[in-house]
Design goal:
heterodimer; A: 220 residues; alpha/beta; Rossmann fold; six-stranded mixed sheet; 7 helices; B: 411 residues; alpha+beta; 2 domains; eight-stranded mixed sheet; four-stranded antiparallel sheet; 53% helix; elongated
Chain lengths: 220, 411
């Protein structure tokens, strides 16, 4: 379960102070599919980065499965990410000099999984996502949809309970975007993963169990 | 975990943008640094090695020149008086020589010719025929220089031998095939004896070359011909304090024999060389230091930029559970590998450059390689380590300032 209590994130821009996230309190239950919607600059991506331990909050409390995240220093949050949270980014965030196989391998390397076991897990996920035959290609040689499938496969291999997707269909055409959202929905239902998607697209958000709308850093 | 991080460092080096080019740049930077250090080192090497070659060091050894105003002067008597001056520890004559292959009866010189022919450092053939390179030593000179016999007669056993034999021939360690005590005959029919073999890797100081530097040669490939000569060109004294007294006595002899006798310690000669060239030497030292510092700073900047260019990749690793410590390890390993590869390239290039630009006017090739290994390579290594450490520190500092989100967004 994810619990946020009065979470705030402020930035200083010269003399101005910007409240990117301005006192958000919310709970997300295990296995929920939540969409966080809002216009550009509403603070939705910042909120996702805080949930994903990719950014520090300025104030507030954050509990992930009863673990208190707000007390931890940034340099120690990699352990939380490694064991609990996986990401899918709008721009796919794949390493262009690594093949599809090697990109998917990254979280397993972080967890020091043995080579034999890594191979088994990676091949299983590549086949699940229909990109097994692309395993030796580099990201620049495959389509956007295939790259996003690769990113989702990477998110699945470490078997983390929480998958965070920041505008996962933002760089894709409509048809491919629908395929990706369906995939995420299927993962949520079959594997009981908590999926949180940030989007500005209503059609994407309609797939979620719950929609949270953010405006000016606050839940509307 | 270490193996995993080393693998990631290698992957980054082999596959990331501009990594290969940066590694090559590291090699070029170290070559430039190496050339500057090498040229600077030649001066120190000259002084240090000369000091080692001389039994009593550069301060207590030197060069002596005698010029007679009158050909009638009894030169031998003058030399005898100089040798007897109190305070003179040893006095003698050393010179590089060459001998026609036909100069010794039998196959002696022909055998040496065949061996020396393979050594590019020695001129084995001159305009007028085939020659072997020799060193001429008059008895007593071994008191000035450090030269050791490996097997055969020690030098202090040669006084009596030189009553019977015209020459005692010591062979350098690379020569072989002749027994100690074997008798051979020179072109004048003079009886010579093989005195023994010298220890390997020895050098003999030859002369001041054009007033610019002292020169020495390796003797491993040469026969050293010991004779009783009455010619002088080197000396050694008990201590530099004795020189004043010795100079007074030399003045008396100059008047007595109407001769000009110059005695200069090698320390004084080096001083003179440095003073004459002080402006050039100082100028070069400043330029060399400036170039080395500039190259190091430039290289640190370029390597840091190369790592920062690829921060996005490290952000992806960070987002997927790799720690700051993992990244620090990867940066250090990457920079260290670049440094090692750069050193290998620079050492290889150093060998090629020395070979390309070598002339035998002052130094032998072996001596240049020795300067390279003894004085240059380890300093290049320190520069490479400095570049590695500072680059890693700067990169880690900049990396830690950013969150994973900011890193992934880096272009």
């Amino acid at each position: 379960m994810i619990r946020l209590v009065d979470v705030k994130k402020t930035y200083k821009n010269g003399e101005d102070t910007i409240n990117a996230v301005d006192g958000i309190t919310m709970d997300i239950a295990d296995g929920e599919f939540v969409a966080i919607m809002g216009s550009s600059g509403s603070g939705k991506s910042t909120l996702l980065n805080i949930i994903g331990c990719m950014d520090e909050m300025t104030e507030g409390e954050y509990y992930l499965d009863e673990i208190s995240i707000h007390g931890k220093k940034m340099k120690n949050l990699h352990k939380i990410r490694k064991s609990n949270i996986s990401f899918v980014f709008q721009n796919f965030a794949l390493m262009n000099h690594y093949s599809v196989y090697e990109n998917v391998e990254i979280p397993l390397l972080a967890n020091n999984i043995k080579k034999k076991d890594r191979k088994k897990i990676i091949e299983e996920k590549l086949k699940l996502l229909g990109i097994y035959e692309l395993r030796n290609k580099v990201p620049t040689k495959i389509s956007g949809g295939q790259q996003q499938r690769c990113a989702i496969a990477r998110a699945l291999v470490s078997d983390n309970n929480v998958i965070l997707a920041d505008e996962p269909t933002g760089a894709l055409d409509k048809k491919t975007g629908e395929e990706i959202i369906s995939l995420l929905k299927e993962i949520n239902k079959k594997e009981k993963k908590t999926v949180i998607v940030v989007t500005h697209d209503e059609k994407v958000a309609k797939n979620a169990d719950r929609i949270i709308v953010i405006e000016d850093g606050k839940i509307v | 975990m270490i193996r995993r991080n080393i693998r990631l460092a290698f992957d980054a080096l082999l596959r990331e943008k501009n990594s290969a080019a940066n590694t090559l740049l590291e090699g070029i930077a170290l070559i430039v640094i190496g050339v500057m250090i090498f040229i600077q080192s030649l001066t120190y090497y000259n002084y240090n090695e000369s000091d080692k070659i001389l039994k009593y060091g550069v301060e207590n050894s030197g060069k002596i020149d005698i010029e007679l105003s009158d050909e009638e002067t009894d030169y031998d008597a003058l030399v005898k008086e100089i040798k007897n001056i109190k305070g003179i520890k040893a006095i003698g004559y050393i010179t590089e020589g060459s001998c026609d292959v036909e100069g010794y009866k039998g196959d002696f010189a022909k055998d040496i010719y065949e061996l020396q022919k393979n050594n590019e450092d020695i001129m084995y053939e001159k305009t007028f025929g085939k020659y072997i390179e020799t060193v001429i030593l008059n008895y007593g000179s071994e008191g000035v220089i450090n030269i050791d016999v490996d097997k055969g007669y020690n030098f202090n056993e040669c006084d009596e031998l030189l009553e019977e034999y015209e020459e005692i021939i010591y062979l350098g360690s690379n020569l072989s095939g002749y027994d100690v005590g074997e008798v051979i005959y020179n072109e004048r029919g003079g009886k010579c004896i093989i005195g023994g073999y010298l220890k390997s890797n020895q050098r003999i100081l030859i002369d001041v070359i054009t007033g610019e530097t002292l020169s020495y040669i390796d003797v491993d490939d040469r026969p050293i011909i010991l004779k009783k000569l009455n010619t002088l060109n080197i000396f050694a004294v008990n201590s530099s304090e004795d020189m004043e007294g010795i100079r007074e006595k030399i003045k008396i002899l100059e008047e007595k024999y109407d001769a000009s006798i110059t005695m200069k310690t090698y320390d004084g000669i080096f001083d003179g060389i440095l003073k004459r060239n002080k402006t050039i030497i100082d100028f070069f030292e400043h330029i060399a230091t400036l170039v080395i510092l500039t190259v190091i700073i430039l290289q640190i900047c370029m390597q840091t930029v190369n790592l920062i260019e690829n921060f996005r990749n490290y952000g992806i690793l960070y987002a997927n559970g790799f720690s700051t410590k993992d990244h620090m390890f990867i940066f250090v390993v990457q920079n260290a590998i670049k440094g090692i590869v750069g050193m290998i390239l620079a050492i290889g290039a150093g060998y090629i450059l020395i070979d390309l630009f070598y002339t035998d006017v002052v130094y032998s090739l072996d001596i240049l390689y020795e300067v390279f290994w003894k004085y240059t390579v380890w300093k290049m290594g320190i520069c490479a380590m400095l570049i590695t450490i500072i680059t890693s520190l700067i990169t880690i500092f900049m990396f830690k300032k950013k969150s994973p989100k900011e890193l992934i967004q880096e272009n």
